Amino acid sequence: MRKPVVDYSTFRLSKINDPRFSHLKLLLGWPVYFLLYFLTENLIPVEKCYSVHCWLDDVIPFCEVFVIPYVFWYVLIVISLLYFMLYNVDGFKKLQTYIIITQVVAMVIYILLPSRQDLRPDTLPRDNILAQLVGLLYTADTNTGVCPSLHVAYSIGIASVWLKEKTASRGWKAFVVVSVILICLSTMFIKQHSAVDAFAALPVCLLAEILLYGNYYQNRLFSSRRPGQTTKAGQ
Predict the structure, then answer these.
(1) Cα separation of 203 and 52, whole Å?
(2) Which pLDDT band holds residue 231 (cuts at 50, 70, 90)?
C-alpha cells in the first residue's frame, strides 16, 4: 500500500504553522467561501439579480439522469483533495489554490453583478427517484449567484491538476476527464445553470491556470522547441 508523504497522525492544531502541515491552512478557504455564500444568498434580493439566459437553454431539455454526475461533483472534490493531501502536497496546494482563486473571482462577480436563472421547471416532468433528488437540490440551493458556475470552474480545476499528476494512470485521468465533461453538462441538463454560466466559468479558469501554471506551460513550450532548433554554426 502506498505510503502518504506526510504523517498526519502527528498533526495537532498547534502545529498548523509547522512546514509539514502549513499547506492545510489553505482549507480555510472553504469556511470563508461558505460564509460569503450565505451572505450573498440571503442579503441580495432575487429581484436585484440579473436573469441569465441564452438560446441554448431553450434547446437543452431537462434530464434528471444528469443529477448523478452533478452530485458526483462533491465526491470528486473530496477524493481529489484527499489524494493530493496524502500523496502530493504540491498538487494539493495547486488544487486548493485553484479553487480559492475561482471562489474569490466568482464571489466578487456575484456581489457586483448579481445573477439568477429562471430555467427550473415549475413541475418536474417525471416522478422518479432522480427527479426527486433534483427537487431536493432545488430546495437546498437557490437559483441566485449562478454566473459564473463554480460547479464548472472547480471541475475544470480538478481535471487540470489530475492531468498533470505523473503518478496517476491514464485510465484514471480518462475517467476524471469524462466525469468533468458530464458534470459540466449536468449543470445545464438539470436546469441548475444557464449555458452562459458554464461558458462564463472558462475565463475564470484561464486566470487560475495562468496564475498557477504559467511557468509550467512556458517550460513545456520552450522544451518542445529546443530539439528542433539549429544554431548558425551548425548550418
Answers:
(1) 17
(2) very low
